[in-house]
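Listing S7. Sequence submitted for prediction.
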Amino acid sequence: MTSTITPTRHIPTISDLDDLPEDVVGEIIDGELIVHPRPDPPHARAAYRLGLTLGRSFEDGLGDPGGWIIIGEPRIQFDPQILVPDLAAWRRECYQAPPSGPFQVIPDLVCEVLSPSTERDDRVRKLPIFARSGVRHAWLVDPILRTLEVLRLEGGAWVIVGAHQNDDKVRAEPFDAIEIDLSQIWGEIAGEAGEESAGGSETPPP
């Protein structure tokens, strides 16, 4: 009788994430190493502008009303997952920076900036993990469609409490102490509109 050995499936760890090249973003979801390319310019710009807008008013010591810590692309342990939202925010009294490795304290808000390569995972795989872990608020930003969906956790399930688009001026919980002009989130870099017009288009960009 011949014995056989079944190969043991490798369970990804933080070391696998550390070994990835810098031009990708890695996460561990349901025991699987998920790798996406770095965001394209519209995605990266929307995440940066939104983080800057919130940081000016809510980061500790930088403005009024304050009271929050906001971090871009943090690695967060949602045991046993390790996820990397585009933005995460903690109320100042709950925030605790780890000495090393991923954040262990669950954030109060996560924000995902959607792209064609990440939207399925962001909506179908990551949102349920955020809900099970007790994240209270989630924002989904689509810089191509120019939309902002605001979700609140109620009874363990996500409820859409706001849907905004284009140049709306919004007060979106939990940051409804300030008004956010969405046109500032997807605003083009100077010269982009002119370059499109030079191509012969009669219709201005949306």
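Caption to Listing S7: primary sequence and predicted structure tokens for the chain studied. The longest strand covers residues 157-165. The CA atoms of residues 65 and 140 lie 23 Å apart.
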